[in-house]
Each structure stands twice: as structure tokens, then as C-alpha cells.
Amino acid sequence: MDNNFMIKQIGVICADENGFRIQLAPEYKDSLIGLDGFSYINILWWFSGCDNEKERSVLSEAKPYTKGPDTLGIFATRSPQRPNPIALSCAYVTYIDANNGIVGLAYIDADDQSPVLDIKPYTPSLDRVEEPEVPAWCKHWPYNVETSGEFDWESEFNF
């Protein structure tokens, strides 16, 4: 099961005084054709700050959430420490500047200059689960992305 994969960075996350956006590499700007009209996108990006042997070897976390169990396997968390530091964020699109390869975002939980790997349109027919089940320790979390910005996430994490 030891396969090698080649991943190409298509752009970067910009999180600065001008807000949040994706800046695509010039050769990928035509990839934005037809994206207008989608209000949300799924963004695959790289937790570049955790791309080292130590962080990639973390398989479990001691009490990462204040109301969670004492230990969780890394696949039961949204921690950036993972065997492959790949992140997935769903973000609201505020504008698309296809000429300059820019996608404006209302918010994304990524650091400035985080590498972007892929963008996919959010489509309810494939991405929405009508009645998802979650463990009791996180049932009080917001039920959708629209209200999660108002939630006190700082009081939920121990990292």
C-alpha cells in the first residue's frame, strides 16, 4: 500500500487586511469558468504548517475538545496534525474575478498563504446530508455553516 502521488498546488489562500480569498496560479484561472452562480465551494488545501514528520505521525489527540472524550483518533478530529495534512473547508463565495484568478470568500479557517489543492462547487445533491448523526459530545455544535460563525468555537477547543 505504499503509493506515491503527485499533487499540484493550484493557488494560495489569502487571509489579510483585505479579507479572505483564493489566488489561483495564472495557468488555472480558466478553471473558474462556470463557477459563478454557486454560492458555496469546497476547498481542499494543505495544512502546510503541520507538514513535518512529527506532526504527520500523530494518530490520536488527548482531549482535543472541551466536551469530548479523553482521547480521540485523529480521524475523529479536525486537527491539522494528520498523516496527510489535507484540509477541507466549505466556504461562501463573495465574488469571482476570473480575469485575475481570484475567488473571494466570506471566511476560511486557513492561514494566509496556505496552499490550495482543489476547488469543487458545493452541490446539495452530493454534499448535503439531510440527517447527519454526530456523537453526543458535539451535538450542541451548530447544525450548518451559516450559523457556525456565531458560535463560540474558542470554548470548544483545547488546542
Automatic annotation (TrEMBL):
Q: Any keyword Cell division?
A: no
Keywords, sorted A to Z: Methyltransferase, S-adenosyl-L-methionine, Transferase
Q: Name one GO biological process term.
A: methylation
PROSITE patterns given for it?
A: TSAA_2
Question: Which stretch is the leader sequence?
Answer: none
* One of the record's GO molecular function terms: methyltransferase activity
Q: Which InterPro entries match?
A: TrmO-like_N, YaeB-like, YaeB-like_sf, YaeB_N_sf
Mention any Pfam family matching this sequence: TrmO_N
In this protein, which residues make up the domain named TsaA-like? 7-131
Q: Which PANTHER family match?
A: TRNA (ADENINE(37)-N6)-METHYLTRANSFERASE (PTHR12818)
The record's family statement is:
Belongs to the tRNA methyltransferase O family.
Q: What is this protein called?
A: SAM-dependent methyltransferase
Origin species: Clostridium boliviensis
